[in-house]
Structure formats: C-alpha cells, structure tokens
Amino acid sequence: MQLKPNRDLKRVLAAASASLLALNPAQAQDAWEVDAEILYYQEQDDRVQDVSFKSLAKGTVRDDDQITLSLQYDSLTGASPTGAATQSETQTFTSASGGGTIVVPANELPLDDAFEDNRTALSGNYQHTLASGARFSNGLTFSKEYDYLHLGVNTAYAFDFDNNNRTLSVGLGIANDTIESVGGNPVPNTFVASGASTNFTTSKEDKSVVDFLIGFTQIINRRSLVQVNYSASKFDGYLNDPYKFLSVLENDGSLAAAGGGLGGLYRFENRPDSRTGHNLYVEYKYRFDNSIANLSYRFHTDNWGINSHTVESRFKWLIDAKQWLEPNIRIYSQSAADFYEPFVFDSNLPAQASSDYRLNEFTGVTVGLAYKRKLSKNNAIGFSFESYQTSGADTSIASPTGEVVTAKSTDLAASIFRLNYSFRF
C-alpha cells in the first residue's frame, strides 16, 4: 500500500515563520527537545488498523542553528476496499497482488482482508541562521514500505522585516518515488478474471513530485497574528493505486461474465499520469490571558477536477501552570475526480477510471480532544482522542442502453488515539 510521505517542507516553513504565540514568557532553549508519540488508528468493521510510533528531536547547535531529526514507523493491517462494487450475488476474485482468492457474500462491500503493510520514515533538517537573522534550511526525507520507496530533498528560506512583525518564507521540495507492488504492478486497463489474475509486470514504476510553498505571517498586535500560505504540487509518473480495480457491469447492472466459467469481470484502474494541485491556506491565532484560539481554512484545486475545503478550529486552554486542554473540530469536503467511476459498463469502457472511494465526493468530520501535563520542568505527557466520520455521495450512472444503475457511497468511521511524551536535556 502506498502511504503518503510526510510533508516535511510545510513543517520546515511553518517552523521558520516563527508564527506561534507562547502562553508563557520566552525561556532559554535547552540543547535538545524530544517528542515521542504512539498512535492507534482503527476503522470500523475491522477495516484498516494502524499502530505507529513517531519521534521528533530538535537540537540547537552553533548558537542559533538547529537540527531536526524525525523517525516514524507504521504497522498496518486489516481489510481494505478493493474498488469492486457491491453486488446482489456472491463475488469471487483474486486480490490485486495475486496473493489469494477473495470470496465476498452478496450485498457486502468487497474487502481484501489480507491487507498488510509496514512503513519506516526518516527525515533530517539543518537550519542555519544568517547574520541578518534570516533562516536558511535544507532537509532530506526517506521512507520505505514493502512496495514503495520515497527519497526527497527540500530547502527553505525565511526572513523577518518591519521590526520582526512580518515574516516571509519560501521553500521547494523535490522527491522521487519507486513503486514495486507485491505480485507485480498491474497493467492499467487490463482485465482480471476471478481465479485467473494475469496482466502483471515485474518492472518498477516511478513517480516524481515537486512542491513549492510561499508563506507570509503578519503579527497584528501582541495578542494576534495571521498567516497565509500558497503552495503548488506537481506529480508525474505512475499515480495508480496498484491494488484497486473496478467491476465491469452489463447494462442492467449485473456483473459481466468473464467467460470460461471464471465468474465476474474486473478491470484494473487507470488514472492520469500527471497531477497539478494548488492550495491556499489561511490561519488566524488569538491569545487570551490563559488560552489560544486558532481558526484555519484551506482551499485545494487540481486538474483532476477535485476541489476541497477544510475548516479547522482549535482552542488551547491553560488549566494552570502545568496542564492544558485542547478541543478541536475539522470539517473537510471535496468534489469527485473527473475520472471517478464506481463501476464501468462492458459496452462502454472509458480510457481512464478509478473507483477509489477517496476520489469520490464526500464530507469528513473530525472531532477531538487533547490533554497535556508537565511532569517536571523538562518533561511532559499528553494524550488525545479523535473521532473521524465520512459521508459520501451515492452515484447514479445511465448505461449505454438507458438503464440507471446506482452505487452506494463507501462511508468510513474511524477512531484515533495518541499518547505523547516529551522531554528536554
């Protein structure tokens, strides 16, 4: 499975902009600060489960220069949607990786219960402070899964002006990813017959990614500030999910027969081999006497036809000098990709199509609560819980002969728990 690599470029720029308002007066920075976190993620109905460990270490060297090191390990198991449509008949097919036979009862969402993946991610960044006070940083990123290798570099520059009331930052990230799916990479648009999966290649596929970001932070007064970021991303190469395929239907909505007594017919997905996205992000922070309110909005658009809106609000309340509480809510909505198809018709097969529910129109709501407490001057412990719920759009498609077939949305509910420990030395 392809996991999304960490967006280290955005993290570096956010740190470089120095946009956070402290609740307490500034204190001398210790040589090193380490944050360690364990995350548990569980989807409903025994779907995907993720147990991960993440550690972030920041150290000050050479006066104002900083080193940031990150390590993350993810272990994922469970059942993942194959992309095949729910049918009123039993379905039998091999997994996209050719790893075994999947039997799906009638009227149930086809899931691959053999889903498993592990991911190790490393990143490092060095930030140098120039004599003028401007910050210049360079970083490296690496992640490895069973079937996926990510290598990336990033650079960023930030400087303050107007008596340090304004910060301008700019950054660039370049990455190259290699995909080598378990069982081979499927040839796009080829067919998979139940019990006879073929059309896999042993060749590796590549994807290149270029990220650009420019940000501006304005301190409004001693209690508030606003930050505006624009970012653009360009993806080229193999952008398919090699483990997703589509059901091929007859005009009446029944599953097309593969012939030879092999059962139903399925087709590997095929997405465009390039994607360009643009993002606008606006964040406002206000510091009360014992709390910080945060409100942000993000707009995304790309040439796949996806437009999305994200609104998030956080309120960090300082209970006393040793502990704080932070509730949050996040609302996300997106339109469907131009090539999203929950299924395809045997008599009218499109050149590009994907039934991945993450490309469909849907709304997602996350509600959470975080708590952190100082154990001593140099260490603290915290935890958070979040509930995530999506609601997608049903899709009705007219067949070439006029029959209307409707696919129900693939909704998702998940719980996320984090345990965090930080210390300085």
Structural summary, described in words:
The radius of gyration is 24 Å and the shape is elongated. The longest helix is centred in the first third of the chain and has 9 residues, at 8-16. The model is unreliable at 11-28 (pLDDT under 50). Helices cover 2% and strands 60% of the residues. The chain has a single domain (8-424), classed as Porin. The strands form five sheets. Strands 1-2-3-6-7-8-9-13-14-17-18-19-20-22-23-26 form a 16-stranded antiparallel β-barrel. It has a four-stranded mixed β-sheet with strand order 11-16-15-21, with no helix packed on it. It is mostly beta strands. It has one helix and 26 strands.
User: Spatial order of the strands in the main sheet?
Assistant: 1-2-3-6-7-8-9-13-14-17-18-19-20-22-23-26
| CATH-defined superfamily | monomeric porin ompg
- Overall mean pLDDT stands at 88
Helix segment tally? 1
CATH topology: Porin
Q: CATH top level?
A: Mainly Beta
The CATH level-2 architecture is identified as Beta Barrel
Label the structural class.
mainly beta
Per DSSP, what share of the residues sits in E-state strands of 2 or more residues?
Answer: over 45%
Biggest sheet architecture: 16 strands, antiparallel, barrel
Calculate Rg over CA atoms: 24 Å
